[in-house]
Amino acid sequence: MKAVKKNFRPVVKLKGLRAERMVTQFDIANVLGVSTATYNRKENGVGRFDANEIAVLVSYFNVKFEDIFLA
């Protein structure tokens, strides 16, 4: 149960940021250089973002790390 709770906030934050900016998972996957399926798993908490991907997401969305990945 802890893993679901731990991953819940990034999922909500990333989906919300994408919705605000009207970008798709396909768009973000291309920015990260991964497949849409890989990005989907990571956004939904099944996979993990590596340090480089986190840096790209923070830069792309122009937010702080804490705004996406911390409770």
Question: What is the structure about, briefly put?
Answer:
The protein is mostly helical and about 70 residues long. It has five helices and no strands.
Please explain how this structure is put together.
By secondary structure, the chain is mostly helical. It has a single domain (2-68), classed as Orthogonal Bundle (434 Repressor (Amino-terminal Domain)). It has helices spanning 2-21, 25-32, 36-43, 51-61, 65-69.
For the structure shown, list the relevant keywords.
434 Repressor (Amino-terminal Domain), mainly alpha, 71 residues, disordered N terminus, 5 helices
Shape: globular
Query: Number of domains in the coordinates?
Result: 1
- Give the helix/strand class: mainly alpha
Count every helix, treating DSSP H or I runs of 4 or more residues as helices: 5
Strand coverage percent: under 5%
Supply the CATH superfamily name: lambda repressor-like DNA-binding domains
Helical fraction equals over 70%
Averaged pLDDT, please? 85
CATH architecture: Orthogonal Bundle
Largest sheet: none
What is the count of β-strands?
Answer: 0
- The CA-CA distance between the termini, in Å, is 16 Å
CATH class: Mainly Alpha
**CA-based gyration radius:** 11 Å
SSE ordering: HHHHH
**CATH level-3 fold name:** 434 Repressor (Amino-terminal Domain)
Which runs of at least 5 residues are low in confidence (pLDDT < 50)?
1-8
List the helices and strands and how they pair.
Blueprint: H1 2-21, H2 25-32, H3 36-43, H4 51-61, H5 65-69
